[in-house]
UniProtKB/TrEMBL annotation:
<dbReference type="GO" id="GO:0016989">
    <property type="term" value="F:sigma factor antagonist activity"/>
</dbReference>
<dbReference type="Pfam" id="PF03872">
    <property type="entry name" value="RseA_N"/>
</dbReference>
<feature type="transmembrane region" description="Helical">
    <location>
        <begin position="82"/>
        <end position="102"/>
    </location>
</feature>
<dbReference type="InterPro" id="IPR052383">
    <property type="entry name" value="Anti-sigma-E_RseA-like"/>
</dbReference>
<dbReference type="InterPro" id="IPR005572">
    <property type="entry name" value="Anti-sigma_E_RseA_N"/>
</dbReference>
<keyword id="KW-0812">Transmembrane</keyword>
<keyword id="KW-0472">Membrane</keyword>
<dbReference type="InterPro" id="IPR036147">
    <property type="entry name" value="Anti-sigma_E_RseA_N_sf"/>
</dbReference>
<protein>
    <submittedName>
        <fullName>Sigma-E factor negative regulatory protein</fullName>
    </submittedName>
</protein>
<feature type="domain" description="Anti sigma-E protein RseA N-terminal">
    <location>
        <begin position="2"/>
        <end position="73"/>
    </location>
</feature>
<keyword id="KW-1133">Transmembrane helix</keyword>
C-alpha cells in the first residue's frame, strides 16, 4: 500500500486506480498518517516547509513585546568588600614572603654570629704557624656528576641557573689546568 501512496503522490497512477487508493486512505487512519508523512517528506525535499518559518523575525517580535528588566545597582558595600578582600590578600601574601625571607636571613645571621665567636676563640689561642688552606682537586668525573645532580635536585627548583654556576665555577681548578 505504501508504494501505491508514493505513486499517487508522484502522479503515476491512472485515474480509476488513484480513486480506489484515495478511498482506502480516507477509510483508514494509519494510511492517512502515512499520507501526511509523505507530504512532509516532499515538502522537506522541496524546502517548502521551512520557507514560511522565519525564526529571526519571531525572535525580534518576542523581544519587542517583552518588557525591559531593570537590574538593581550594585551596592557600594559589595564593591568596597571586593577591594578590601583583595587588599587583605595582597598584604597577607607580602607578609608570607617577608616571613620566609626573614627566616632565611635569621639562619644566615646565626652562621655569621657563629663565625664571629669562633674567630674570637681562634684569636685568643696562640698561632703556631700560618695556616694555608689545602686545595684538593676533585676527580674530573665528579664535576659532571655534580652538574647533573644539581640539575635534578629538588632543592634547586627555585634557584634556576644559580645551581649551574655553583657547580661549574671553580676558579682554582681552572687556574691549574
Amino acid at each position: 500500500m505504501k508504494q501505491e501512496i508514493s505513486a499517487l503522490m508522484d502522479g503515476e497512477l491512472e485515474a480509476d486506480h488513484a480513486s480506489s487508493v484515495i478511498g482506502r486512505i480516507i477509510g483508514n487512519p494509519s494510511l492517512q498518517s502515512e499520507w501526511a508523512v509523505y507530504h512532509m517528506i516532499g515538502d522537506a525535499l522541496r524546502e517548502q516547509a521551512f520557507a514560511a518559518f522565519d525564526v529571526g523575525e519571531r525572535v525580534r517580535q518576542r523581544l519587542a513585546e517583552e518588557p525591559p528588566v531593570l537590574a538593581p545597582r550594585r551596592s557600594l558595600l559589595k564593591s568596597v568588600r571586593v577591594y578590601a578582600l583583595s587588599a587583605a590578600a595582597s598584604i597577607a601574601a607580602v607578609a608570607m614572603v617577608g616571613w620566609v625571607v626573614l627566616q632565611g636571613q635569621s639562619e644566615g645571621e646565626r652562621s655569621v654570629v657563629a663565625q664571629h665567636s669562633s674567630s674570637a676563640i681562634a684569636s685568643a689561642a696562640p698561632a703556631a704557624s700560618p695556616v694555608r688552606p689545602a686545595s684538593v682537586l676533585p676527580p674530573s668525573g665528579l664535576n659532571d656528576y655534580l652538574l647533573v645532580h644539581h640539575g635534578y635536585s629538588p632543592s634547586t627548583q627555585i634557584q634556576g641557573m644559580a645551581t649551574y654556576i655553583r657547580a661549574v665555577a671553580h676558579p682554582e681548578v681552572e687556574a691549574r689546568q
